[in-house]
Amino acid sequence: MKTKRFVTWLLILAMVTALCAVTVSADSGSYEPGSVPHTRQIDDLLVIGDSIPAGYGLFGQWDFPGRLNMSHGERVEGAYPWLLGDALQAKHVYNMARCAYRTTEVLRLIDPAFDEELARPENTMERFISDCIFYPSGITNVNDIPTAAAEAEQEIRSADAVVINLGSNDGFTAALCAPMLKTMYYTYGMSVERALTALEGKFKNIQSVQDLAGMIMGMGIHDFLTDYNEGMATFQKYYERIIARIRELNPTAEIYYVGMFNMFDEVKITDFSEPGILTDFGNKQLMEIFRFVEEQSVWKDEVTYVDIKDVETHEMVTMTNPFFYLNFIVTAHPTYKGHQQCADIILDSMNLRALGHRGDIYPDIGPVDPLKDGEDPSSPAAELIAGFRDVLKGDWYAGFVQYAVDHGFMKGITEDLFAPDKTLTRAEVVTMLYAMEGKPAVTAQSTFSDVLDGDWFRDPVLWAASAGVTAGYEDGTFRPGQNVSRQELATMLRSYASCKQKDLTASGDIASFADAASVAGYAAEPMQWAVGHDLIHGKPGNLLDPAGVSTRAEAAVMFRALDLNVLA
User: Fold this and answer.
1) Which one of 120, 192, 260, 557 has the lowest number of neighbouring Cβ atoms within 10 Å?
2) Which residues contact 194 (CB under 8 A, 6 or more apart)?
């Protein structure tokens, strides 16, 4: 009964999400998983996470009552923790992953002091919400926690490698759940059993999407971004404590953090529309977690980041299909192939560490520090540029990167990584132009729903918008994480040159390029201007490739030309 009641509110969460989403398609990775030589054997493997490493969506959940079966850490054939264990010839695999877990629930299990904190009067609502999430994992009473915590502590102490796969439930999912769970708390107090029973009764009265929407609205949905930001702040705070506790119990284990994938990747409002705000928001959370774990966390040098954002997930039927609502909680998880991709990518990271590297695999660029053509990175021929491990003296973009870094308008994504092949985003472009401008003070308030106080790109975005360098979109977003095409980049650079009252008359001949006709109408003059100032050159095959994405290496070339040929 407790499992069915938990799924009751989980299905409501699925339906709330489904009110906006329609289709999700699988994508392929940015490099070929399994491409790093396999050299590892790890005796004791510990996996900590949520429903993804728990294997939800892989075993008999396409029909009832199968979809009501939550994963409690048991061996699920095809789930990546067990694929990893087999590949590593591990003698012991412990899967401490449970459906719906956030950093809050993990911290309660591994740090007794934290569970005591939640017992304080000021934390009763958070304790109630956490108890609701614990409910399907077999912990239905606070008296069960000490036993589970003792087992978790022993597993951490003995682990040779710890794989952590948490985060998506802290931000986006928590924000969707918050109105319902908080209303349950205010209505039913601390009785989890009573709250879930009452919710089950309400759910039985739902006959249509309109009924569902009315019920949810009646439960008091408020500002989604407020709950999202609270959830992400909680993730950052508790993530630090989780790593600290692991290190306290086990100073030597390798620690891997597995990034999230965007369950709304390619989501469309209709079958014919372009991906919209849900896709952007999913990417926003993905990149916020990535940047925190790799750049801001005090444990950034202790934890290896592993990107899985492009693994295969189930395809969704359209929202008009009556099975959409029932399928969402399953389809928002990786397929068997997706789990195999997860295992291959994590294994690549572990093998890179065995080869003497940090092992990081970043979004869009794959492994950041594999051996280049068998070259020994300690040899004189592998001289690093600007201290970046992924920019060597012989690379074609080395001199441009050095110039951009020396002049202060580009820097690495971390202290020792430039990520030359990473696709350029709107936030990165305006940040570089903002640096070129000398980083003037910004007093304006953000009018963009996806540009918030505390975002690393806030001031550059607001400056660029006020200066006329670029604008946002009609839906009130800026889409900072959206990739920038070559023609979009040319347009932004020309707008900046206009703000600086520089020459806009130079015009190159783009008609001679084989794909000149594919240049968008708005970008014709900017592309002519960019070619005329040598900011853009053709690609093999005499192509401009106007819609092709720009990489950070290409940006270094263009910004150097802008500085020398236009601004000088």
Assistant:
1) 120
2) 188
Position 192 scores a pLDDT of: 55
Is-contact 318 324, C-beta < 8 A?
yes
Q: Side chain identity at 1, as an amino acid letter?
A: M
**Cβ partners under 8 Å of residue 516, min gap 6:** 510, 544
For helices 486-499 and 552-561, give the axis angle rounded to 10 degrees: 30
Tell me the percentage of the chain whose pLDDT exceeds 90: 35
Q: What is the pLDDT of residues 101-120, one digit of tens each?
A: 999 999 999 998 888 888 88
Cα(433)–Cα(436) distance, integer angstroms: 5
The reported pLDDT for the residue numbered 181 is: 67
Average pLDDT over residues 258-271: 68
Q: What tokens were used for 134?
A: 């614990």
Contact between 548 and 485 (Cβ < 8 Å): yes
Distance of CA 508 to the CA centre of its chain: 40
How do residues 170-183 score in pLDDT, each as one tens digit? Answer: 887 777 666 666 66
What are the structure tokens assigned to 354, written together? 């065995």
The residues that bridge with 417 in the sheet, in sequence order, are 414
**Distance between CA atoms of residues 266 and 282, nearest Å:** 10
- pLDDT of residue 463 exceeding 90, the answer is yes
Residues, the chain: 568
pLDDT in tens, 70-82: 667 778 889 999 9
CA 183 to chain centre: 29
C-alpha to C-alpha distance for 519 and 262, rounded to whole angstroms: 30
Global pTM reads: 0.67
Computed on alpha carbons and rounded to an integer, the radius of gyration of the chain in Å comes to 25
Residue 169 carries which DSSP code? I
Report how far residue 444's alpha carbon sits from residue 462's, in angstroms, rounded to the nearest whole number.
7
Cβ-based neighbour number of residue 354 at 10 Å: 16
Cα 189 to Cα 199: distance, rounded to the nearest angstrom: 13
